[in-house]
Amino acid sequence: MKTLQKEKPSLHVFDTLESEVRSYCRSFPTVFTKAKGYTLWDAAGEEYIDFFAGAGALNYGHNNPVLKQKLLQYIQEDGVTHSLDMATEAKQQFLERFRQVILEPRGLSYKVQFPGPTGANSVESALKLARKVTERSTVIGFTNAFHGMTLGALSVTGNKFKRSGAGVPLHHSVSMPYDGYLGENFHTIDYMENYIQDTGSGISLPAAIIVETIQGEGGINVAGAEWLRRLEKLCKEHQIVLIVDDVQMGCGRTGTFFSFEASGITPDIVCLSKSIGGYGLPMALTLIRPELDIWEPGEHNGTFRGNNLAFITASEALRYWENNDFSKEIIDKGELLNLRLCSMVSSFPQLKGQVRGRGLMQGIAFETNGVAESLCELAFSKGLIMETSGTDSEVAKIMPPLIIDQTGLNRGLDILEQCMKELAARHYALA
Ligand SMILES: *Cc1c(COP(=O)(O)O)cnc(C)c1O
Question: What are the tens digits of pLDDT across the range 115-136?
């Protein structure tokens, strides 16, 4: 925990030159200089435990030493850095490793598209392909979904504020209630099935349904395994393309490489980004069921689909998935996290919190707006980086790098507990 308060680094150039659109630098107002594993340091030498992990882009930690070694060696040897989508050795090795370590052991036969380096790029390519394959235009998204900030991705995103940024009507999409959205006893798949089957519903047969197995940005809402299986069945029955957006929940966040593994479903298309590059380097994949891969050469193109530095670290990061050890570790740490969060919530009942999530994607949803924000602000002042999620920022989200050890996890949670205690005291004072 922090002791002596040193002078805060100046944010002057950011405040005066960088666009008003900047966001995370407002939540974490300091200038960072160095990072390692689950720790960040700022220009004043203050240390921060990272429970945000680059919004999920740093599952293997900051500057992971093994990945760094491979990257340095590749640069030293003048390996190709940028290649458009020309064939390079780095890409070849990545594709071979991905097939061998991820696809084959899971019995998956996906073709791999490199859609451009961001999650939104992957989502756009998935939507386009589903429309091309089915020759239908509507896509169903879910309440509180988040799929990225480009127009297609926004059209299936729930958040009103983000949607309004589009500046044009967001068409050809329909929002349906996510699992649990209308209360525990309301079966939202039945509801959706009615809409899809009934010729009087006013909704035309969709090209695709796009879903997150856990809605990270949307407030850590978890879809049940049975719900996902029923969704898959509904899609199969109506030849609707099922797209799982695994941009944030993939690469081990929930305990398995793909977040849908526990449910047993096999989506038609999977979007991956954030941690797939392994080192925080931009990279995204769109995984496509082979029969759906009807793209014409160059039909969905882009300059930055050949980030070879990311291919090098992505290949190396797959070493974590060569056996089940890493998966078990994540699940164990997830249990520890859950126990501690549940204990905090019951220790400070006046904060009216509820624990949500699975694996190393968990958080506390608060009944009163503003509590999660105050908590994250207080946490930052004590050297812990974490963010809120949910449309009203009502959830304090905890997503440390997956490589964090139990000591680091406990240190961060000790800070969080202290913050909960201080906030609870404030609430007593107000009551
Ligand atoms: C972050 C995210 C995206 C968008 O990825 P970008 O790289 O920011 O474009 C899409 N879907 C989900 C679920 C995400 O968490």
Answer: 999 999 999 999 999 999 999 9
* CA–centroid distance, residue 149 to ligand 1 (Å): 8
Q: Confirm or reject: Cβ of 351 under 6 Å from ligand 1.
A: no
Task: Check whether 202 has a pLDDT greater than 60.
Answer: yes
Copy the structure tokens of residue 125: 């390519």
CA of 403 to the centre of ligand 1 (A): 21
Long-range contacts of 153-157 (CB under 8 A, 24+ apart): 153/120, 153/123, 153/124, 153/127, 156/123, 156/127, 156/210
**Residue 1 pLDDT exceeds 60:** no
- Is 146 within 8 Å of 158 (Cβ atoms)? yes
CA angle 167, 286, 247 (to 5 degrees): 65
For residue 30, being part of any structural domain is answered with no
Ligand 1 lined by 213 (C-beta under 6 Å)? no
What global pTM score does this model have?
0.97
431 is a domain residue: no
C-beta atoms surrounding 69 within 10 Å: 11
- Sign of the C-alpha dihedral, residues 144, 149, 151, 153? negative
Alpha carbon of 133 to ligand 1 centroid (Å) = 24
Span 230-278, pLDDT tens digits: 999 999 999 999 999 999 999 999 999 999 999 999 999 999 999 999 9
Tell me, what's the pLDDT at 7? 79
Per the structure, the count of domains in the chain is: 1
Q: Is residue 37 part of a domain?
A: no
Domain assignment of residue 195, given as a range: 80-321
Q: Is residue 398 part of a domain?
A: no
Could you report the per-residue pLDDT of 19-53, keeping only the tens digit for each? Answer: 999 999 999 999 999 999 999 999 999 999 999 99
